[in-house]
Design brief:
4 strands, alpha/beta, 4-stranded mixed β-sheet, 49% helix, Collagenase (Catalytic Domain)
């Protein structure tokens, strides 16, 4: 089950029911079973604290993924800075909703075993992100 939590932040325009169904479909399409996945939306400062504490990285980032998967059952926590999502969307001249989906599916793909440490891995991740972003169908088009 995927659940969404807000840690003292708001996530504008999030259709949580549809969003959860979409992320679950990504997990299934990658031949995994959806276990317990938490999307926790936080501020820049909160995610920076987690990044320093658990990864030793002293910089802002849009997402930190904690993978607790067992075999083919996907479990984990995705901590997402809504501040970074908004800033990235502005910087990249991207629609906010697309950037929000991209960051979240990026974390789910990490849980499914994809990495982005090398240029080759990063390219594969971007292709997968694009594929799944194109599969998202909003309620307005149904």
């Amino acid at each position: 089950m995927i659940e969404i939590f807000l840690d003292d932040v708001e996530v504008p325009g999030l259709d949580s029911e549809l969003f959860i169904l979409w992320l679950q479909s990504v997990i299934v399409a990658e031949d995994f079973v959806c276990g317990d996945v938490n999307l926790i939306f936080v501020s820049d400062e909160k995610l920076l604290e987690l990044n320093v504490q658990f990864l030793g990285h002293d910089y802002y980032t849009d997402i930190v993924t904690f993978d607790n998967s067992i075999d083919t059952i996907i479990n984990g926590e995705l901590y997402i800075s809504i501040d970074r999502v908004i800033d990235n969307a502005n910087t990249l001249n991207e629609e906010y909703n697309n950037e929000l989906k991209r960051v979240c599916v990026h974390g789910v793909l990490h849980l499914c075993g994809y990495n982005d440490k090398t240029e080759e891995e990063s390219l594969e991740m971007r292709v997968k992100e694009g594929f799944y972003l194109n599969s998202y169908v909003s309620r307005e088009t149904r």
